[in-house]
Design a protein that fits this description.
Oligomer: single chain
Structural class: mainly beta
CATH superfamily of the largest domain: YVTN repeat-like/Quinoprotein amine dehydrogenase
CATH architecture of the largest domain: 7 Propeller
Strand content: over 45%
CATH topology of the largest domain: Methylamine Dehydrogenase, Chain H
Radius of gyration: 20 Å
Number of strands: 33
Shape: globular
Amino acid sequence: MGVKGSSLQSWVVALGLGVTGCQHSTPAVSNNKTTPTKTVTILKLEPGLQMGLPGMPGFKAENVYAFDQIGAFSPAVAGIPARVYVPDGKSNKLSVIDPKTFKVIATYSVDKEPQHVVPSYDLRTLYVVNDVGNTITPIDPRTSRLGKPIKIQDPYNLYFTPDGQDAIVVAEYKRRLDFFDPHTWQKRTSLSVPCKGINHMDFSSDGRFILAACEFSGDLVRIDLAAKKVIGTLHVGGMPQDVKLSPDGKVFYVADMMADGLHVIDASSFKRLEFIPTGKGAHGLYPSRDAKNLYISNRGEGSISVLEFATRTLVAKWRIPGGGSPDMGSVSADGTQLWLAGRNNGEVYVFDTRLGKLEKRIKVGRGPHGLTFFPQPGRYSLGHTGVYR
């Protein structure tokens, strides 16, 4: 369940996040009484990196995915075997697949309606978010064994702030974001949102704000992360789903399952720049390992569209022979495969990203959803099925 009893700086350095720094504690005085000390982390950036949200590791403005390249593993995942974790919301099961053999090697019972498997910020734990069961279940990625469920209300999705200080539980039906201590899982605060069905999100390149999608009201919301305050709403209609930032941090792509394509949102002005049709039921978004392309799962037509980031044009479409329902998933660590859950077909799809063809279909449960391939390159996880920086 994360790193306990350590400060942010100590495990930032341990994970090799490309920063150096020091700490000091300053007592806060109020009414002549000394309150508990607060640790202040001072980060010194390596050359070529920029500072964002205080306490957040430095980033490269030209490519926010620069630390997610092939082989760029954090020391925290050394020795962890590659596995694919598949939650099934209809059978309340978690399946574990060995990606080398494409075989299901373990199946576990979890609480009701597991939605996604989410890597923790420090990459040491995975969490199954059980929406209707009102729990999250930790997984030890070294053994694939489950820990004791943690009681959390309405956990549809799970993210982590870029400074590692908060876990953000996306309480879809409650219309709010709940902020927790990511180690003790004590709730700190809640933020109500003026929309219905908040589900997926991504962070600005500097980590200072969130863009989140609300599928049931067709809205996007912009949230100031430091203030934990909604600072803008944008009605795009349709049914917005997954959100991904472009490598240069200039635009967000938002998949729309009803409009069948991508909304392109300017990250600075929070205005829609254009709409790109991709295919029926556009749903999940996944950058390629080299950050040149964006893979879009079109759940309603059983296809994957490939968009070139540099030109914002579609360069390929891969179809599932006989049809399917590609939903959420992950790119493999070496970038040669795209793994996706077949939400309505009880199967997992494995695409060869070099050939643009379906490589494997693996039978898994009845309603697989937020599949995660782990481990992947990256210094830390921002949540969902693997949003790394």
